[in-house]
Amino acid sequence: MNIPVNLFMWVLACLPIIVLLVLMIRFQWGATDAAPIGLAITVFTGIVFYKADLKVIVSEGSKGIWNALTILIIVWTAVLLYQVGNETHAFLVIRDGMRKLLPNELLLILAMGWIFESFLQGITGFGVPVAVGAPLLIGIGVKPMWAVIIPLLGQSWGNTFGTLAAAWDALGMSAGLTTGSREYLVTALWAAVFIWVWNLIIGVTICWFYGKGKAIRKGILAVALISVIQGGGELLLTQVNTTIACFVPACISLIIILMLGRLPAFRNEWNVKESQIMERKTAAQEDGEKPEGMTLVQAFVPYFLLSVIALVVLLVEPVHTFLGRIQIGFSFPETVTGYGYVNEAVESFSPLSPFTHASMFLLISSLAGMIYYRKKGWIKKGGIGRIFIRAVSMTMPSGMAIIGLVIMSKIMAGTGQTEVLANGIANVLGKVYVILSPFIGLLGSFMTGSNMSSNILFAGFQSTTANLLHVDPSIVLGAQTAGGSIGSAISPSNIILGTTTANILGSEGKVLKKIIVITVPAAVVIGVLVFALTSL
Amino acid sequence: MEEQKFFRTRAGRLTIAFCVIMAAFVLMLTGLHSDNSMLYSVGFVMTAAAMLYSPIEVHIYQRLKKSKK
């Protein structure tokens, strides 16, 4: 490529992201309104300054729409699953049932906001834990904004090895790591080490949000134990089987937290009265709407189904192979910008396997849940129609934002803006660049909404830069994907999923403002760690 | 009646915008495959218009409406 990497071009490549952040944080615009502005700037700079013709823009834009669609069908079906629970008021049963099992409110928040999300991230991912977790937390009395923030943090550590290690596989593929090779295992080890640091930060942060120092003192041992199981378990399993490295520890932690609730330290009712995240009155007012005779197990029926279907389809190899035969994908021609930046032709771009896709598991669980609850009489006449109408109304605004953001990231990548952005950082900073390696992963997740896409975008670049600077690429790649995991907590498309199901759409800026002060310092900590390790 | 009401809401109008993008997607794909620049240009304009509907409505049209009142 002949794109000049200078300050002017670098600032232009940054511009859409800066504008997006300013509109959302400073001016409190919702992502539905901010994303099209960022996209318009990307198209303008792409055509005028990066010499892309309309064919490049249209081709990358179409790829973006296709990628957005594969995300949106997860959003729609996740919201459909949520609406099934909403129509039957199953969340009130879950709230009361979990309260009985975990009378300690801090432990309850950790279970519903961190552990359950980790479990969902282990199998589904793509924002499902945020979409499903937010209404569950509101059900137990958490304020809507915090009910979005906590699952965003809670699910994020599982983004690399979660979804049965989809993002990790993308990293390995993009950086050219051979499965099982020494480089592969060392990179997995470093990635797990950095993610463990982030996992511990998440637990402590949720305690801090709930009740500052008082909650940290009460919950630190539980957090440490859960973190050892999740972070440490993942670290060990990466050396055995990366596919289950997140899912297995997440399942174990779910069992452990319920057992912790039986210990003398946690079995009695305990809460922080003045907790900033709780709105106990609102939750208590809804008691009259509780469905008659519904047990906790019955309230979880769609989620149990979701777990069983996902596990069978993803882990039973013959089933996975058979259902994965049908794939939908479109071919795209080669496009070249005026600077010679080539987007190679593809036969089948990002093929979608509808029967092994998370949206199919969500759809089947939702439909089966509807049939089950209808038979039990918990869905009244006209309820099914209401579920579908509410699901469509709830998802459309977020759908437009997701389309805008994904097209923006595709056009940035396809016109060479992403590469200039990354190259500029490396050229200016030299070896100090390694401190920023997790930031690049974070930036990728922020832009694309996915750790996997971040790894596809930047793993090759990070590996090449590390080799140029004579530092261990395994450490830098580990930091890349750990940064990507952290970035999934601030990705606008993930935030929108939460604000949609929490019914506070338009508050994305406020949510982002609260989380960014946790994620950026966490990336700094990992960056400094990477610098220290590569300087040894 | 219900349908008419839905399409008058913000979610309803965004649903229309989404449908426009889907139609534009088909035009752009067809245009790229057949190397028909007219077809994919129309698709591009449709996508741009549908994407910009929300910020224009919320931050320009409604503000102008308020200031007129």
Would you give an account of this structure?
The complex is a heterodimer of chains A (about 525) and B (about 70). By secondary structure, chain A is mostly helical. Chain A contains 22 helices and four strands. In chain A, the strands form two sheets. Chain A has a two-stranded antiparallel sheet. In chain A, strands 2-3 form a two-stranded antiparallel sheet. In chain A, helix 6 (about 130-140) packs parallel to helix 21 (about 490-500). The mean pLDDT of chain A is about 90. The model of chain B has no long low-confidence stretch (mean pLDDT about 90). Chain B has helices spanning about 1-10, 10-35, 35-69. Chain B is built from three helices and no strands. The interface of A and B includes residues 34, 39 and 58 of A.
Which features characterize this protein?
heterodimer; A: 536 residues; mainly alpha; two-stranded antiparallel sheet; 22 helices; 74% helix; 3% strand; globular; B: 69 residues; elongated
Briefly summarize what is shown.
The complex is a heterodimer of chains A (536) and B (69). With 536 residues, chain A is mainly alpha-helical. Chain A contains 22 helices and 4 strands.
Spatial arrangement of strands, main beta sheet of chain A:
1-4
- Counting DSSP E segments of at least 2 residues, the number of strands of chain A comes to 4
Structural class of chain B, by secondary structure, is: mainly alpha
Provide the low-confidence segments of chain A as ranges.
Answer: none
- What's the story with the biggest beta sheet of chain A? 2 strands, antiparallel
**What is the strand content of chain A?**
under 5%
* Count of helical regions of chain B: 3
Number of domains of chain B: 1
Organism (chain A): Drancourtella massiliensis
Family (chain A): Belongs to the lactate permease family.
Subcellular location (chain A): Cell membrane
Transmembrane segments (chain A): 7-29, 35-52, 64-85, 105-138, 145-168, 188-210, 242-261, 296-316, 355-375, 387-408, 428-447, 515-534
